[in-house]
């Protein structure tokens, strides 16, 4: 019988726990394998070798960031997702909340309603059924619409016991008059203003799926 070495954790895990290996031993071959797995899993393709190399570089930088956070022993862990080949500038486009500094005229929260003795140490509303499945805003700065619908979905569930997926697309298409700008950003209070003025928000099933672009034809049709 021929003895072989113990397989060990592999370069991927060694580099994750000891990033200096990249500098000392030049152990970066694991990145090639992980990037290939990433491309296959998320059906990624690039126009040319230059774009491929650029996105692979972004992938490596994001991987280093993920590993550094996971080494810190925080209360959460990070993992590679479909955005791992984006640069910081490209990711910034997705952060569509644009504060105008304008007061939203909302009433202050009445803290007297809180009974501190009854506040649990943890609360996961997913376990209560108050949160819809994870949604994807795609390459569009529409986070303001997702934050708005998510808040109302949860509040509606607590009031009625029914969980409904509401339409981000309707807010994208129709709340321009309140000062929102579709994929170019907006503010949640402007979305709430539009909802109150129009008398409600349509469900995703009724209005149609999220498109990650403004459906200008539907906007004019609804005017």
UniProtKB/TrEMBL annotation:
Q: Which domain of life is it from?
A: Eukaryota
Boundaries of each Cathepsin propeptide inhibitor domain copy? 35-91
What Pfam family is a match, any one? Inhibitor_I29
Query: Where is each Peptidase C1A papain C-terminal domain found?
Result: 119-223
InterPro entries named in the record: Papain-like_cys_pep_sf (IPR038765), Pept_cys_AS (IPR000169), Peptidase_C1A (IPR013128), Peptidase_C1A_C (IPR000668), Peptidase_C1A_papain-like (IPR039417), Prot_inhib_I29 (IPR013201)
Keyword annotations for this protein? Disulfide bond, Hydrolase, Protease, Thiol protease, Zymogen
Gene3D superfamilies, sorted: 1.10.287.2250, Cysteine proteinases (3.90.70.10)
PROSITE patterns linked: THIOL_PROTEASE_CYS (PS00139)
GO terms (molecular function) for this protein are:
cysteine-type peptidase activity
Q: Which family does the record claim for this protein?
A: Belongs to the peptidase C1 family.
Instruction: Kindly provide the name given to this protein in its UniProt entry.
Output: Cathepsin propeptide inhibitor domain-containing protein
Which organism does this sequence originate in? Octopus bimaculoides
């Amino acid at each position: 019988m021929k003895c072989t070495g113990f397989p060990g954790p592999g370069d991927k895990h060694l580099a994750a726990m000891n990033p200096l290996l990249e500098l000392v031993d030049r152990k970066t071959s694991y990145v090639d394998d992980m990037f290939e797995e990433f491309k296959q899993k998320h059906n990624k393709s690039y126009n040319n070798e230059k774009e491929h190399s650029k996105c692979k570089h972004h992938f490596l930088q994001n991987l280093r960031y993920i590993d550094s956070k996971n080494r810190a022993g925080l209360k959460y862990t990070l993992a590679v997702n479909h955005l791992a080949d984006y640069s910081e500038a490209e990711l910034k486009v997705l952060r569509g909340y644009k504060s105008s500094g304008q007061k939203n005229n909302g009433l202050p929260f009445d803290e007297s309603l809180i009974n501190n003795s009854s506040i649990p140490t943890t609360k996961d509303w997913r376990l209560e059924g108050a949160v819809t499945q994870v949604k994807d805003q795609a390459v569009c700065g529409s986070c303001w619409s997702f934050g708005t619908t998510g808040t109302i979905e949860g509040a509606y569930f607590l009031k009625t016991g029914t969980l409904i997926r509401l339409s981000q697309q309707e807010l994208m298409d129709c709340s321009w008059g309140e000062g929102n700008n579709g994929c170019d950003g907006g503010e949640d209070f402007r979305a709430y203003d539009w909802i109150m003025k129009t008398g409600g928000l349509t469900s995703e099933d009724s209005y149609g799926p999220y498109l990650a672009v403004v459906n200008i034809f539907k906007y004019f049709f609804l005017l």
